[in-house]
Each structure stands twice: as structure tokens, then as C-alpha cells.
Amino acid sequence: MLKEKIAFREPTIQLAHGAGGKASRRLIEGLLAPYLNVSELNDAAYVQIDQAQIAFTADSFVVNPLRFPGGSIGELAINGTVNDLAMGGAKPLAIVTTFIIEAGLETEILEAEIKAMHEAAEKANVAIVGGDTKVVEHQKADKLFITTAGIGLVDSRVNLSAGRVKQGDKIILSGPIGDHGITILFARGELDLEANIKTDTRAVWPFVSKLIDAAAPGLKWMRDPTRGGMATALNELARDAKVAIMLEEEAILVNPEVRGACEILGLDPMHIANEGQFIAVVSEEYADTALKAIQQVPGGEQAAIIGEVFESDRHIVLSRSSYGGTRAIDMLVGDPLPRIC
Amino acid sequence: MKMRFVDEFRNPELIRKTLDEIERIIEPDDHFRIMEACGGHTYSIFHFGLQELLPKNIEFIHGPGCPVCVLPPGRVDEGLEIASKNSDVIFTAFGDVMRVPGKKGSPLNYKAMGTDVRMIYSPLDALNIAMKNPDKKVILFAIGFETTAPSTAITVLKAKELDIDNFFVYSNHVKIVPVLKSILDQPNMRIDGFIGPGHASVVIGAHPYETIAKEYKKPVVISGFEPLDLLQSILMLIKQLKNGESKVEIQYKRVVMEGGNVSALEIMNQVFEDRPAFEWRGLGAIQNSALKLKPEFSKWDAEVQFNVEKITIEENKDAQCGEVLKGMLKPNQCKLFGKVCTPDNPVGALMVSSEGACATYYNHLYSTMSL
């Protein structure tokens, strides 16, 4: 029985399997989930403890370089997990953290990241309650890897499920996309390009909290489009909800620096990672209320309705340009690679 | 970075106006088969959804202008073999090359298994890697049409000037006009006109296409990559076709000059010479269609300095890359398309690069057409 579900036949694990796109999905759905008997794949899992619905999630951080304009691995490690909980409609409560440290790492570097974690946790109003530390031989890890796991209390007013997403529902995006991925690409210093751009890392719970207060009955699905970008998140929704999605390209904000970098490198902003944005699907009835609730939280001013759900036999994501051309937006395949001419 | 330059060429009103004009001059009985030579154009046509905006009797044939796609299988293996057999070799290549499937895997697969493979964004990056690693030998897997050949050439000149002896070029540079002529020489070929490549023409200018216009009587319009660029180029082509003309015109005047980039051409000619013949994927050997380093630069020529074992790989017999490249089949008419051959698991190289005709079809048209 189990054997039949193991669809993953690739002989080795490649970088693409960790990039958050199609290959990642093949690995998780074809090997990990069937063995571990995980039936639903979301940013956070739900665990029922007596009367309380708890959201539970874990995330690992291996970013290179450790520090980049606007943030660092420590800040990401807190915000990433806090945001996964928020995407489950849960108020983040507590986090535990593990460090894998390469021998020889300067204490100063580690200290800076611990400090960044502390500050991010204070800002997100979540407690770091424990953890574990391992040190491995020099060159057996890249400086510092951090894993965080978190729990949050699910707001009893929300009922999130791709299965509830129906024709006419609106897609809300919290702000401009692509800042984080392009910042990291530039921060690696491999490109002779510079741009005034920084990561968008932030905790999104303040927005989600207001969104729930204003529009809980109409709120159906949420996702923070990290690796694989918005294209991958929405394709997963289309597939899981068995619907198609039409986006209005003009409504999707992309900062000029990000757009410029993507034009030069042949990348699609919709495939670029974000660390401080989220997508919410809200019924038509509640869409405007939901949008206003997000916009009223400082930092949420640029939120917009970017498209809607429609019924179709093909579970895909389309994007319509201002002059009427439409194109399909596929999931990320492998890592985004720049074109050559 | 000012992006207004791009926005002007995505202006909905101007786009509508150009479309209206195309619709006005094209007649129901017309059927024009236009080859966009460049992979960048193929990508733009689908990315901007131009096909569905244009009248049905304008048909695009997706040309050979994606350098990754026309690279014969075996070529990547040859470069990677050098690197995997010699622990002191660093293999460097542009991003598009990283996923090209070789016999034992792509450069990315080799990298994951421990071969020192590095992605670069400019040939000069490879030279910098060589300078920073004097105890290593750095191979630049150079690829591209005349677009990128000058930057490889200038890097070789720089290596000579700085007397760097651990940098080597494995040249796969190709030329656009010989391959277009070879396609026109194929039997059963019915192409009415060409959208000429924008970037390669920045270097070579308009003159090399004269032979296509004069000898083969096919109009060529050198085009930019934005929706308005392409629509204007199509309009210019249709006007020529309706008037029975075959001229070389430049739509992409903001970048392309009639005579090309003279200094880039000089540098290219200083470093490179034609190969007598070069194998193109799906098209076979084409004479004088590729560039190798001149003998006086053999010190930096990986093909001379390393014992490169010629690797020939049998292509999957069911793969119809050649027919697609010649415009005889649409990508989705290939037996393997979308079933065995997908962007996740490319069998033919046309599926590898985002500018390859098959990958473009798969990512754009294929997913919209059966909606």
C-alpha cells in the first residue's frame, strides 16, 4: 500500500529539490509525506489539544550570506516561522531554536545573529523558550544553520482550506514582490550589479490579525510566498482547490529595482522569494473589507486585490496584461537561472 | 535603474494602434509564416501573449536562436569531463548552461556531486576566478551567438594582456546568418520572412542579412524584445510582403546600427576565426557557422590545451528537435512533448532554456490552449 504512494524515483537529491518549486514538491509528495503519513501540506500543521487548536511548524535557514541589506539569517529564522504560523490563522506564541555551527565561526558573528533573533522575537511578540546547539567540523556546514519550530493558537473564527476556494473569490497580495530574492542574489556579490534594495523580511501577523477581525467568515486560504515565489504558491492553490486563477498583471506591485534586475537577468518576479508578504483568498463579499483592514496596518498600504478565482478543468494560473494578452504562470522549475542573451 | 524605457514599449494604446494597423492591411486570404530567429523573441511572443492578439493568419515559426538549444549533446559532457577528471579544474558557465542535460548529468548535477562548477554572469567573472585561484585551471564554457562572442574575445585579450596562464576558453560560439541560410536551404521550407535577432545584430549590424533579402528574397526586420517592438516589426514585415519587397530593415533603431558595433567586430575578428564546420543540434553540420580561437591564442584554447575526448551522444530517436527547429513541427506536435520531455526533465535541449521553443510552448501556450 505504502509502496504505491512512493512516486519519487530520482536517484539523488539535487539542489532543485530544495528550491521550493516543482522538484521540491515531487520530493515532498512522492517520498516524505507518504512515509510520514502527512496528508495535508500547509505552512503550518494543526494539532488539537483538548479544546485548543494549535498551529505547529518548523523551518530551517541556510541563507548565504548570513547578513544582507535589511536583514540577516537570525531575523529570517524568527519571521519565517512566525509567518508560517500566521498563515495557519494562528497567533504566534512560542519558538524553540537549534543552531548548527561550523567550527571556527567568529563569536561576534554568532552573537549578532542571536541578538537579531531576540529583537525580531520581541517585535513579533513571540517568546523564544528553548533550543539546542551543535558544532560540526570546519567545512562540514556553511558557517551557521538555524532551525526554528513554533506553536501558535489558531483563531477560532477562521476556517482555512483550499477546498473552500470557489469561483469569484478574490486574491489579495500584501505588498510588492521579489525584494528578498533579488536582495540575496545581489548580496552574494557574484553579479556586477548594484541596486538600492533590501529584504522585505517582517512578521505578517499584525496584518493577518486585523484581516481576521474584519473578514474571518470570508477568509479561505493564506500563504506566504517564500521560495518559489508567488507563482508557485498560487499554482499550488489552483491545484489543491481544483480551480484556475486569473491575475491582473498591473495590480501586482514590483519595485522598480526588482523589476529592472529581473529584466536584465531574465527572471520572473513571480518566481522570486519573499519573506514579508502574504497572499490571502477572500470571498467576493468580504474582499473590500479585508483589503481595507490590511491597508490600515502600517506597512500594509500597498496591499491590493490582484486577481480572482474561476472555475476550469485546467488548474492553472494565468496573468492578463494591460493590453489584453494573457500568459500562463508556471511553478518555479529548479532555481531561477539568469538567461544568457 | 530607469525602467521607463521599457514601459513606453508596453504602452497599451500604442500596442492597440499597431494591432489595428496590422489587422487593416492583412487580408483574409493571406497566410504569413514568420520565423523569429531569436529565442528571446520566442519568449517575448508568449510571455506577452502576442500570438492571441494577432490575426490567425500570421504564423510564427520558432527559429534556432537559442544558443543553449542548438548546442550538440556531448559538447557539455566534453567540458565537464575535463573538470571532473582533473581536481584542479574549475568549470564556469552561464546560468542557462547549468541545466543542459549531458550523458552523466547537467553541470548542476556535476556540481552537486563535487565537481567545481561555478555559474558566471560575464566571461570576465571567469577570468577573475582564475586570477583569484592561481593554483587552479579555469575553463570558461563560452556560448552564444555574436551577442556574447565579443565579451569572450575581450576576456581572452585581457588574459593575454595580464599574462594569465590558468584561464581557458572552450568556445561554442556560433553565427546567426549561416544557420538561417541553412534552414532556408532545407527542402519543404516555407518561411515568408524573418524577425531578425536584436542582440546579435547590435554587434553585426544589418549588412550580413542582405544575402537573405537578396539571394533568398526574404524580408528581414531586426526587432527589439518588447511587445510594441515585435508588433511594429511584424507590421513592417507584412508591409514588405504585401508590396512584394524583400529588404533588411531595423525596427530596433534605439540599439542596433546599420554597420553594427565596429569595435566589437574588430575584437571578435582579432580573437576568433570560423570553424570549417560545426554540428548543430537537430540541423547537422553547417559550414562556417561557428567560431574558434585563432592559433595565436591557442594558449587559452581549452580544446588545444586539454586532451578533449570527443563525445558523441545518440539523441533519443523519438525526439523531433530538428523538425521543430526547422519549423516543420510545432513543439507540441513532437512525440515526446509534455509527456517524456518537460522543463523538469528535458530530453531535448529545446526544453532546457526558458527561451527554447519547447519550454516556451510548455510554459505558456500549452497551458493556456486547452483551457
TrEMBL record, chain A:
InterPro entries recorded: HypE, PurM-like_C_dom, PurM-like_C_sf, PurM-like_N, PurM-like_N_sf
One Gene Ontology biological process: protein maturation
Organism: Ureibacillus thermosphaericus
PurM-like N-terminal domain residues: 42-154
Residues in PurM-like C-terminal domain copies: 166-316
SUPFAM superfamilies linked to this entry: PurM C-terminal domain-like (SSF56042), PurM N-terminal domain-like (SSF55326)
Pfam families: AIRS, AIRS_C
Name of the protein described by the UniProt record: Hydrogenase expression/formation protein HypE
Family membership: Belongs to the HypE family.
Automatic annotation (TrEMBL), chain B:
GO biological process terms, semicolon-separated: protein maturation
Pfam families: HypD
UniProt keyword Repressor, yes or no: no
InterPro entries given in the database record: Hyd_form_HypD (IPR002780), HypD_1 (IPR042243), HypD_2_sf (IPR042244)
GO MF term list: 4 iron, 4 sulfur cluster binding; carbon monoxide binding; iron ion binding
Keywords for the protein's UniProt record, in alphabetical order: Iron, Metal-binding
UniProt entry tagged with the keyword Lipoprotein: no
Protein family: Belongs to the HypD family.
NCBIfam families according to UniProt: hypD
Protein name per its UniProtKB record: Hydrogenase expression/formation protein HypD
Lineage: Bacteria, Bacillati, Bacillota, Bacilli, Bacillales
